[in-house]
Amino acid sequence: MRIRLPSPGVGRAPGGLLRSLVALALLTTAYGCRAELARPDAPTPWPAGEARHWRWQWQLTGPLDTTIEADVFLLDPVRTTSTEAAVLRARDRRLVCQVGVGAYARTDPDADRYPAAVRGAAGRRPGTRWVDVRRWEVLAPILADRLRLCRGKGFGAVALADADGYAHLSGFSLEFDDQLRFNRRVAALARSLDLSPGLLGDVPQVAALAPDFDFAVNEECVRLRECAELLPFADARKPVFHVEYAGDPDEFCVTTLGYGFASIQKRRELDAWRDACPDAPGPGGTGR
Q1: 98 bridge partner residues
Q2: Which of 8, 17, 65, 171 is placed for a possible disulfide with 121 were both Cys, Cβ 3.0 to 4.6 Å?
Q3: Which residues fall within 8 angstroms of residue 206, CB to CB, at 6 or more apart?
Q4: How many CB atoms lie within 10 A of CB 105?
Q5: What is the DSSP string of 169-237?
């Protein structure tokens, strides 16, 4: 993004304009406008033999706990600092960033890049809005910069969130195939930027999308009785990172172990607390 300042002959810019320019420059450091960012490592590999053994952590709120004994960390790329990412990478942790692709939040640093024409109804979380995923020419540059932020901070994989607007009252007449096309395009975009793509949610489309993604992230398939629908990933020996927010781990872990998922229990706010299923040992580790 090129910021054009007034030419010397125009005179001094008004204070309001200067403040706007400073704010815009600061936002560029978050979801940078096509900035060239460092690419510290290759896309995250997911060896098939370890698909059911990954120990993982999902944290989006609170101070980041880098000491958790997990192999995979699913994190917010804006809140996570480059220093925190470097600490985790130094311990050989695999870093996955969570990126909203089918919705945006008012608090996102790039929220003003979404034109009114693509802004839809209120999303599933407070302060979010669905977007018109049919407008790829508008969304692609925004999403590319979100993914570049992940690469610049050292993430090797991305979990695509809010990828199911077609199944909600999005404010647009989105069809099943509209969402499929969009999700595949974002997965391809992630690969082009050396990020391993993962599907977060969108269970009804798993059978169609499993070949396009390297892993899945699922919430509450045991409670919702949807675990069998994730088998296209497990059968392809791709990781399924699963979380339950309620219930007895000694009960739901038995179910998900049978499916071959990597399961944990979390609080809905997705802070640092975590209780992992007593699964088989992860790479270099010993289960829970």
Answers
A1: 159
A2: 171
A3: 199, 216, 229, 230, 232, 233
A4: 15
A5: --SS---HHHHHHHHHHHHHHHHHTT-EEEEES-GGGHHHHGGG-SEEEEE-HHHHT-GGGGHHHHHTT
Rounded to whole angstroms, the Cα distance separating 45 from 211 reads 16
Question: Contact 165/186 with Cβ under 8 angstroms?
Answer: no
pLDDT digits (tens, 9 = 90+) for 240-275: 999 999 989 989 999 999 999 999 999 999 999 999
Report how far residue 129's alpha carbon sits from residue 276's, in angstroms, rounded to the nearest whole number. 32
Q: Write phi, then psi, for 269 (nearest 5 degrees).
A: -75, -5
Cβ–Cβ under 8 Å, residues 216 and 241: yes
pLDDT, tens digit, for every residue of 71-108? 999 999 999 999 999 999 999 999 999 999 999 999 99
Instruction: Please report where in the chains the tokens 């919430």 appear, as a residue.
Output: 219
Would the pTM count as exceeding 0.85? no
Report d(CA 72, CA 96) in Å as an integer: 7
